[in-house]
Amino acid sequence: MNGVGGFSTPPPPPHAAVHPAVQPLSFLLGTWRGEGQGKYPTINSFTYAEELHFSHSPAKPVIAYTQKTWNPSSGQPMHAESGFWRPNPVDGTLQVVIAQSTGLLELQKGTFSAEDNVIKLQSELVGNASKVKEITRIFELVNGELTYVVQMATNITALEPHLKAVLKKL
Fold first, then answer.
1. Which of 12, 88, 116, 123 is most buried per CB count within 10 Å?
2. Where does the THAP4-like heme-binding domain start and stop, copy by copy (predicted)?
3. Where are the alpha helices (DSSP H) in the chain?
């Protein structure tokens, strides 16, 4: 017999590395870094460096998300956001809540394909925004790189491409 007081110590219970609901999106988990371009009819075009981080607790069916961008020349911070991604593997839907450093809030709903590694999100609500009316985001894993395109509509513009980036996993 081993253990305290002559009792044997049971082995620890097996823990899943990833919650089953998160498994189809587990390719996102980790830190991604790369560069992107931004444009919009009402602003000058720009480039940015970016880091995304997706983390997960195996006990919860949710992915925590953080994003930060900076000027690639000066290193000055440009933008940051954080939130939560909640997948439903039964029907392939996804709910995403994002708070941006500008004070803007997004509630997005969408779909994901585990076979194609594609995520499509559409804003259900854009809060605390006097001008932004709609945001879409499409993420795709292509040849080991995470790419995304963000489109935005405002009170004076239709849905237009705004951001795109290519990121590599660290």
1. 123
2. 22-169
3. none
Could you tell me whether strands 43-56 and 77-88 are parallel, antiparallel, or unpaired per DSSP bridges?
Answer: unpaired
Q: What is this structure's pTM?
A: 0.88
Percentage of residues of the chain with pLDDT beyond 90: 86
Token pair 């009316």 is found at 133
pLDDT digits (tens, 9 = 90+) for 66-121: 999 999 999 999 999 999 999 998 899 999 999 999 999 999 999 999 889 999 99
pLDDT at 9: 46
Residue 4 lies in a domain: no
Q: 45: which residues sit within 8 A by CB, 6+ positions away?
A: 37, 38, 39
User: Residue 38 sits in which domain range?
Assistant: 20-169
Residue at 119 is within a domain: yes
Q: Per the domain annotation, does 128 fall within a domain?
A: yes
Burial 5-14 (b: 16+ CB within 10 A, else e): eeeeeeeeee
Measured CA to CA, the distance from residue 137 to residue 156 in angstroms comes to 20
Question: What CATH number is attached to the domain comprising 72?
Answer: 2.40.128.20
Residue 9 is assigned to a structural domain of this protein? no
> How far is it, in rounded angstroms, from Cα 131 to Cα 104?
10
- Is residue 150 scored above 80 in pLDDT? yes
